[in-house]
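2024-03-11 09:14:02 INFO queue: dequeued item Major facilitator superfamily domain-containing protein, len=492
2024-03-11 09:14:02 INFO validating residues
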Amino acid sequence: MESAVPPSTAGGHDAEASLLADSRARRTSLERRIIRRVDWRLLPILGVLYALALIDRTNISIARVVGLDEDLGLSIGSRFSIVVGIYFVPYTLFQLPSNLLLRKVGPRRLLSFCVVAWGAAQLAMGFVPNWQLLTFLRALLGTLEAGFFPSLVYMISTWYTRHEVQTRLAIFYVVAIVLGGFSAFFAYVLSLLSGILGLAGWAWIFIVEGALTIAFGILAWFFLPGFPDRNGFLSVEETLIVLDRVQADRGDSLPDVLTWKKFVSAFDWRVGAYATMFLCGTISTYGVGFFVTLILRGLGWSVSASLLLSAPPFVFAGISTVFFSRLSDRYRQRAPFIAFQCLAAIAGWTLTGFAPSGLWRYAGKRPQLSLSACIILLISYRPGLFLSNAGSSGCVIGILAYSSNNIVSHSKRAIVSSVVISAGGVGGLVASNIFTQASAPRYLPGIIITIISQVVLLAVLGTTTVYFRHQNARAVRESAQLEGHRGFLYTL
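2024-03-11 09:14:37 INFO prediction written
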């Protein structure tokens, strides 16, 4: 039987298909190389800088354990809660204005200035004579750090497609929380400088860590990248490839002009839902970050053991967060993974608060409180603070990706990211006031409220999932536009 297509024509089609496939393979390989280059330029520097931000805002609990409490009388009344909580007032109020300045001023100018300035505030804490001045400096710290995290999230979301974002957020966040976890050990070493130059050990924690922040802020001036349309490390061709990928994915590769109408329209019920979920998630993360050392002290561990044992839960959280973020990006699903990690956080806090002994609240066997015994403990973990830390850290990153995936345009992205993360400041304020001195050493009221907040998170997540599923079905059925773009579907 003769072929319906002449041999010469068939051969031409085969050659054309082969050339097309080869061209696509080269394009894919080129894209991967460019994205890897973007990864290495963005994620390490952003992760280190955010680690410094986390360390500088949470090291007060470590300083308290090594003597700040006694020297400034922070255990009197609600002083410690005031000192911790005051940070979050300006931190919450100034996030949106700061994020809106980012595009105009530029990431390098704005963010490097903020890092150097808050490093100076942190260093000054080493010389405070009373708790009132410490409170003022904590408020200043919150003002200077206000726009930092939402700016980083905003920047990362402009470089990648929707289903690459969570893994990148997780990598930069994990760098931060792992370094932040080991900061307790570093702070313990610094506290051993007590007496040198007549300064207490807690003072050296603030001074050295503040000086390191200033140094990295200066380096940030030279290494911080900009937005993809204004970057200085990719060629014109490479920049176009990055922009084309984002444009094909969600149609907002280039910035749009922010108008009053756009500003007002950005605030709908979904933004409130994202903010509520993020608030609930950060109550848990700040509960661990601020009080893990104090909780361990309450379980009977010595000062040195409490500081040394603070790091491993953060390492576990880092591994868990990257693992689930990779799965979430691979399967292009957000809600199921957020829900699973939220349940893990609930289980972890339940064990921490209500297990019959410190054995289960931290994990493993409880040996004598020597450093060698602590090292043995490091390889014999079971659940407790590990689950609560890993679950809540994973939720925070998942919610940021979930909100970022379901909005379009640079202006709305800047507004929504700052509003959502501002809610995290409220979460920190709540956490600093529910884990009170009066409830030490078990902090049961704080643990119960944290568990309730995770239940609320699950309820709101269920509501948005049902809504997005219904909207996607309607868009497919009626060829309707979502977020002003035909073919756009919400990420579930």
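2024-03-11 09:14:37 INFO annotate: DSSP finds 20 helices and no strands in the chain.
2024-03-11 09:14:38 INFO item closed
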